[in-house]
Amino acid sequence: MTVKTMAQFAAENKIPEILFWVGCAGSFDDRAQKVTRAFAEILTSAGIEFAVLGDEEACTGDPARRAGNEFLFQMTALQNIETLNMYGVKKMVTACPHCFNTIKNEYPALGGHYDIVHHTQLLQELIDNGRIKMTGGGEFKGRRITYHDSCYLGRANGIYEAPRDVLQSLDTQLVEMKRSKTNGLCCGAGGAQMWKEDEPGDKRINMERVEEALGTGADVIAVNCPFCLTMMSDGVTAKEGGAMVYDLSELIVGGMAK
Amino acid sequence: MVQSIIFILVSVAALGYAFWQFRQVYLNIQLGKEETVEGPVAERWKNMFLVAMGQKKMFKRIIPAVLHLMLYVAFVFTQIELLEIFIDGIFGVHRFFAEPLGGLYTFIISTIEILSVLAFVATLIFLIRRNILFIPRFNKPEMTGWPKLDANLILIFELILLLCIFTMNGTDEVLQRLDPAHYPDTHLAITGWLGPMIFGGLEQGTLEVLERIGWWGHIIMVFVFLNYLPKSKHLHILLAFPNTWYARLKPKGEMINMPEIMNEVKTMMGLGDPDAPEPDMNAELPEFGANDIFEMSRIDLLGAYSCTECGRCTSVCPANITGKKLSPRKIVMDVRDRSEQVGANIRSGNAEFAKDASQPVSADNYDDGKNLWDFITREEIHACTTCNACVEACPVLINPLEMIMKLRRHEILTEAAGPQDWLPLFNSIENQQRAWSVGTSRTAWAEE
């Protein structure tokens, strides 16, 4: 797959329709890379001219800020804002709700104002306006799917319906967990927990959540966040299977007309 | 006449002492840092109207919501009756509004009686929930000792108060038949039949004494409540209103920016305002984040004082659910306890609490050798996933996450401490601009 960077567009004196903010997980985590590829494939298939920053992209600073390291957050955030402003970026999309939250809500105070959407919002828009067409079949047709709300898309930004609408287009059977939407339970990775061992306790948070998800009888757990993807996949593996964990864009790639 | 004088004296004393106590709470909240209140004011009134007055968030859990609503509505309506009690008490009259209002009086007081019966039942159920049924959120480690007693005392006071009202109204109903000249007809919905059933057949003298016990008991319990509030979780009945008004309107995911650090980093990166004055290198090193109430904001402290210790935050906290030590309610309670401690120490005027012993102790000249870390352990704040479940759950819009984040910021920025596990993360972001020191290019995903 060929992707063009902002630098390449700039060299051609062109401006892409949208900047795809890949994020650290989407760039470096093996599992999350598949999501990145799936989403890039959807964008290409929908005929959207997009760019990535490539190696000019830096961590948004979400984990540093939430760990309490404001200096580091400011350093990496200001660097990103410099880069984005230099290219005159206006419209962005990302498959990571942490990057989404930071860029949308926290960069403006630092001088970075962008129109950013989460990939589930863009997917909904593309399905609604027919830029991507679902085959109505696909490998997930009729299967029981449960959707795990990420904290940073859900409570942090109040986006609950767009991902569910996207799932509806797959002609699957959507089953809700008891703790969903505003009451959704965290996967355990936020607040820079992803990078540290758990504090002493009875159980890991992802196990609590995976048990709830498996309890719905779903054989697919849909997520919208690379950290949730890792935590839920680890949990399912520890439970020795029972369901597959996918990001929404992977489900759409499987069910769209190519 | 004698009763009027006693009533006025008791009222003045009770209201005066209550005022003094509320002032202490106000001053304690003022120990925090001022926070700019942003966003549309209309939104704030709407929050107060829906969440505090309308109890919107309570209805996430229907059983306690309905029970709580019974108490709440009864409490609000009883204030009408309280007005009459004050008029009767000051002027030595009996049921001042009964004759002028006639049927309307019967309607109003009967409504209050019906609500009071509901409140009585709700209070009993609350006592059972607190003491007999095992409801996990009422049985966490922070809910032993005073917090448990506090919750029970409120309910017991409530029962005494209601019993006094029923004694007052019930004996009145019987007295109306014995001495119609002094006791105007009321025909109340509950005590109209319950009064004669319980008190019928008693001597007039006994009834008159009982009526006075009910009347005085009621007003004294009102005064006890008023003076108990500032020391109790029950303070939420007042502070829920300002707290919902002051609650942040920003998206929950947005952390408060630290302009002092932003500007320093901008200067460092050559992005600063070239006309900005040179930083004073001799200035005392600033403290970042909060390890004490002085660096928490007044909105945080107001929140701590508004907490009714219901534990909805803790019951949805993923860390707490999985057995970690973190309990958002405890953090909020600790901030309140520390505010109380500092406030009391400053008022004591004791020089041992002064940072500079030659000057009188004050908020600016304070050091008792303690801070919030004497109340909150590192383990607790390290367990937070910043998921905002506690913020979402709070029925009065307290933000425990804000307090936790300020503690984390203090730990990392001021103390250069914190979990060792985070060092590789920090190093990786600082040196490789990425959250993990793995992989090669950021576009490697496209090359497969």
From TrEMBL, chain A:
<dbReference type="GO" id="GO:0005886">
    <property type="term" value="C:plasma membrane"/>
</dbReference>
<dbReference type="GO" id="GO:0051539">
    <property type="term" value="F:4 iron, 4 sulfur cluster binding"/>
</dbReference>
<feature type="domain" description="Cysteine-rich">
    <location>
        <begin position="145"/>
        <end position="232"/>
    </location>
</feature>
<dbReference type="Pfam" id="PF02754">
    <property type="entry name" value="CCG"/>
</dbReference>
<keyword id="KW-0560">Oxidoreductase</keyword>
<dbReference type="InterPro" id="IPR051460">
    <property type="entry name" value="HdrC_iron-sulfur_subunit"/>
</dbReference>
<keyword id="KW-0004">4Fe-4S</keyword>
<dbReference type="GO" id="GO:0046872">
    <property type="term" value="F:metal ion binding"/>
</dbReference>
<keyword id="KW-0408">Iron</keyword>
<feature type="domain" description="Cysteine-rich">
    <location>
        <begin position="19"/>
        <end position="104"/>
    </location>
</feature>
<dbReference type="GO" id="GO:0016491">
    <property type="term" value="F:oxidoreductase activity"/>
</dbReference>
<protein>
    <submittedName>
        <fullName>(Fe-S)-binding protein</fullName>
    </submittedName>
</protein>
<keyword id="KW-0411">Iron-sulfur</keyword>
<dbReference type="InterPro" id="IPR004017">
    <property type="entry name" value="Cys_rich_dom"/>
</dbReference>
<keyword id="KW-0479">Metal-binding</keyword>
TrEMBL record, chain B:
<keyword id="KW-1133">Transmembrane helix</keyword>
<dbReference type="InterPro" id="IPR051460">
    <property type="entry name" value="HdrC_iron-sulfur_subunit"/>
</dbReference>
<feature type="transmembrane region" description="Helical">
    <location>
        <begin position="149"/>
        <end position="168"/>
    </location>
</feature>
<keyword id="KW-0479">Metal-binding</keyword>
<feature type="domain" description="4Fe-4S ferredoxin-type">
    <location>
        <begin position="297"/>
        <end position="329"/>
    </location>
</feature>
<dbReference type="Pfam" id="PF13187">
    <property type="entry name" value="Fer4_9"/>
</dbReference>
<protein>
    <submittedName>
        <fullName>(Fe-S)-binding protein</fullName>
    </submittedName>
</protein>
<feature type="transmembrane region" description="Helical">
    <location>
        <begin position="6"/>
        <end position="22"/>
    </location>
</feature>
<dbReference type="GO" id="GO:0016491">
    <property type="term" value="F:oxidoreductase activity"/>
</dbReference>
<keyword id="KW-0812">Transmembrane</keyword>
<feature type="transmembrane region" description="Helical">
    <location>
        <begin position="62"/>
        <end position="87"/>
    </location>
</feature>
<dbReference type="InterPro" id="IPR036197">
    <property type="entry name" value="NarG-like_sf"/>
</dbReference>
<keyword id="KW-0560">Oxidoreductase</keyword>
<feature type="transmembrane region" description="Helical">
    <location>
        <begin position="107"/>
        <end position="128"/>
    </location>
</feature>
<keyword id="KW-0411">Iron-sulfur</keyword>
<dbReference type="GO" id="GO:0051539">
    <property type="term" value="F:4 iron, 4 sulfur cluster binding"/>
</dbReference>
<keyword id="KW-0472">Membrane</keyword>
<keyword id="KW-0004">4Fe-4S</keyword>
<dbReference type="GO" id="GO:0005886">
    <property type="term" value="C:plasma membrane"/>
</dbReference>
<dbReference type="GO" id="GO:0046872">
    <property type="term" value="F:metal ion binding"/>
</dbReference>
<dbReference type="InterPro" id="IPR017896">
    <property type="entry name" value="4Fe4S_Fe-S-bd"/>
</dbReference>
<keyword id="KW-0408">Iron</keyword>
